[in-house]
User: Fold this.
Amino acid sequence: MNILIIEDEKKVAQALEKGLESEHYQVQVALTGEEGFYLLASREFDLIILDLMLPGRDGLEILRTLRKTDTRTPVLILTAKDTLGDKILGLDLGADDYLVKPFAFPELTARIRALLRRGRSDQPLKLKLADFEMDVVKRTACRGQQTLPLTAMEFDILEFLLRNQGHVVTREMLAEEVWKETERATPLDNVIDVHIGRLRKKIDEPFTKKLLHTVRGVGFILTERES
Amino acid sequence: MTLRPSGVRVRLTLWYSMALAGTVLILSLYVFFFVRARLFSHLNLRLESDFKAVSQDFLEDPNENPEIEIENSVKIVQIVKAGTLFYQTPAYQKAGLPRLGKLPAAESRTVRSSSGARFLLKTDLVASDVLLTVAVDEEPVRSTLRTLAVILMLALPIALALAAFGGFVMAGRLLKPVAAITARAEKISAENLSERLPIENPRDEFGRLAGVVNHMLSRLEEAFERLRRFTADASHELRTPLTVIKSVGEVALQENLDAAAYRDRIGSMLEDVSRLTRLIENLLTLTRADGGHVPLGLVETDLVRLVQRAAEDMRPLAEEKEQRLTLALDGPAIVRVDEGTLRLALVNLLDNAIKYTPPSGAITIRSRIQGNDFLVEVTDTGPGIPPEHKDRIFDRFYRIEKDRPGQAGGAGLGLSIAKWAVEVNGGRIEVETREKQGSTFRLVFPMSKKSA
Assistant:
C-alpha cells in the first residue's frame, strides 16, 4: 500500500513516515504543496494524507485539483483547524476523513485502515482472538468454555478493541466510537479507565494468558503478545 | 475613527443661519407690505377728503367764482364743465397730468404723469356736465417705501452675518466637549485603559455620551484584565506538564536503561502530553465560547434522558469510590438545546461532584419542573464551598485549594466550561452550599410553553 504524506512540518512528516513504515506501508513524503502536486501527477497512491496549511499551495487547492481527475483515492486531512466549518469545507471538497492536530498516532492508523478497507464488506459477525470469542449479533462473549458476563458498555468497548486487535486504541477513540462523544473536552478518561479495569478482571484475571494490555501514555491494546 | 467637530460645527452654523435668513426674509416681506398697504390707504383717505372739500366748495357757488379757494393742502385740481376746461390749479399743470374728462371713475387710481411721477387720482361728476378731478402726489409715500426696502434689504445680510458668526461661535463652544473627548479617546489604547474621558456636565448629551463611553471603557478594562489573568494562568498551567515532560526526558537520556524502562519513560511523557492536550482543548473550548463562534445544533431534546445518560456514564466512577449515586428524575422535559455542549456541562458537573465527595458519600441528581422552568440539581456530600470562594468557583483556573494545583485532576476549568455550556443553551447555573455538608449545583432551563 502506497501512502503519500503532504505535510510541511518536517518533524511531523518524518514521524508519520517512520510510524507508517513500521506498520508496513510504503510511504512517500512531500514537504511542500508543489512537491505534492508533482508526486500526485507522476505516480499512483492508495491513500493521501494531506495537511491543510501548506506554504505555496494550500492543501484545499491540492484537494480541489486532485478531485477534478481522481475521485477514488482516499484523502485524509490533517490539520490544526478544528472548527465545524473547516471540517465541512474539507469534506465538501472531497476529503474522506478529517483528523485534528494533535492526533494520536493509533487513531491515524485506525482511520487509514478504515479508509483502505472501505468498499470491502469485511465486518465479521464473529470476532476472535486466541481463545477469546465474541458474537456481535447475539452479543455474547466467551473465553475458552466460559461465557463472560459483560455489560452493554463493556461489550461495545471490547468489540471496538477486538476489531482493532493488535493495534493500540486511545481513550479519545473509545470516547468517540463507544460513547459517541462530539465534544472533545468532555472528561471521560477516568470513566474509560474504570471500564477497562473491570474488563480486565472479567476477561484476563481468571486466565494465565493476558490479552488486554495498557500502553502507558497512549491507550489500550488487545493482543496475544506480551507487552 | 475620527470625529469631525469642524464638519458638525459648519453644518450647525449653516442650518442655523438658513433658518434665521428665512425668518428675517418672511418678516421683512410682511413689514414691507403691511407698511405699504397702510400708507396707500392713508393717501386714499386724504384724496377722498380733498375731493369732498373741493366738490362742496364748487357746488356752493358753481358759476360766479371760478377761483376756488384752495384750502387745506388740496393743490392738484381740475374742473371740466360741459367738455371744456373750466378751472385748473397751477400744480395740476405742473404735474403734467393728462386732461381727463371722458369717463368718470368712481374709484381712485394711480396715474402716471408725462414726467413719470405717479399720482393718486379721482375723477367724478359733481353735477351734470361738471367733471371734477383731484389728485395727490404718491411720491412721498413711495420714497418712504423705498427707504424701508433698502433698510430691510440691508438688514437681511447683516442679520445673516451676525447669525452665522454667533452660531459658529456657539456651535464651537457646544462642541468643545466633543473635541476634548476625541482628543482623549485617541490617546486611550490597550495600554492605558484605566484612563477616562473628561465629563464637564454629566447631565447634558455630551456628558451622557462621555459617561457611556467611560462605562464601556470600564468593561473593556475588565475584559482585558480577565484576558491578561487568563493568559497568565494558562501559561502557568501549561508549564506544569511541560516541566514534567522535559525533566522525565532529560533524566531518561542521562540514565542507561533497557528498552522496557525507556518505553515506560516515554509513556510517562506521553501521559503528560495528554494532559497538555486536554488542557489546550479546554482552553480552546473557552476561547471559542468567548468569541461566540460555537455553532450549536439546537434540537428539541428530552433533558431527563440526557441527564440520565450522563449519570449512567459517570456511575462507574462513583462505584469505584463506593459512593451512592441516586437519581430522582421527573420528566420528560423537552427543551431546545445542543446535546453535545449540554452533555459537556452535565459530565463536568458530575465529574466534579464525584471528585469532591469522599468515598462512600452520596450524590443525588434530582430533576423537576417548576413553573416554566426545568430544574436539574446535583447534590454532593463533599466538603462544600467556603463562602469566600462561592462567587469565584466559576472563574477560569479558580481552585479552592490553591496550593495543590492539578492534584484533584482538573486545572480549574471544569466549572467555567459547565457554566458556559449551560448558558449557551439558554439556561443558568446556581450553587448552594453548606460548609462540611456539601453543595448543590442547580441548572435552570426555561421551557417552551408548549411542553410545559
